């Protein structure tokens, strides 16, 4: 990280805020798209995938982009239909053994 970066770009502030104005509607669109995707069960990659420390249940993303889980120690890697239960902002509970996991945000 270069701490001099801010100074260097100071006289570009005007064009930057102009750019920000242009980008803002796009950013709002992206947020809307993420919300829509989430409501459809599509994983939008806003956190790391969970891997239970208490049992073999792990999360993965299916080919269609939806979130799925399977048992790591099983040969069947298709969605077992279970979902980690969201407890808090970054805490999820395993539906199998009840272990509370901290999600890693990306
Ligand atoms: Zn578990």
Calculate the mean pLDDT score and round it.
86
Q: Spell out the helices and strands N to C.
A: HHEEEEE
Tally of extended strands? 5
Spatially, the strands of the biggest sheet line up as: 3-4-5
Estimate percent helicity: 25-40%
Give a written overview of the molecule.
The protein is an alpha+beta fold and 106 residues long. Among the domains are: 12-39; 57-102, no CATH class. It has two helices and five strands; from the N terminus they run ααβββββ. Strands 3-4-5 form a three-stranded antiparallel β-sheet, with no helix packed on it. It has a two-stranded antiparallel ribbon with strand order 1-2. It is elongated and about 55 Å long. The two termini are 19 Å apart. Zinc ion binds next to loops.
Write the SSE topology.
Elements: H1 5-8, H2 13-39, E1 57-61, E2 67-71, E3 85-86, E4 91-93, E5 100-102
Antiparallel strand pairs: 1-2, 3-4, 4-5
Zinc ion binds near residues 54, 57, 94, 97 and 99.
Précis, in short:
The chain is of the alpha+beta class and 106 residues long.
List keywords for this structure.
binds zinc ion, alpha+beta, elongated, 106 residues, three-stranded antiparallel sheet, two-stranded antiparallel ribbon
């Amino acid at each position: 990280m270069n701490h001099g970066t801010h100074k260097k770009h100071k006289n570009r502030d005007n064009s930057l805020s102009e750019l920000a104005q242009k980008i803002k509607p796009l950013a709002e669109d992206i947020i809307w798209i993420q919300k829509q995707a989430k409501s459809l069960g599509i994983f939008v990659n806003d956190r790391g995938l969970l891997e239970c420390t208490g049992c073999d249940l792990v999360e993965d993303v299916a080919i269609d982009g939806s979130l799925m889980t399977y048992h790591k120690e099983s040969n069947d890697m298709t969605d077992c239909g279970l979902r980690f239960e969201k407890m808090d902002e970054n805490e999820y509970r395993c539906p199998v053994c009840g272990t509370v996991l901290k999600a890693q945000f990306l």
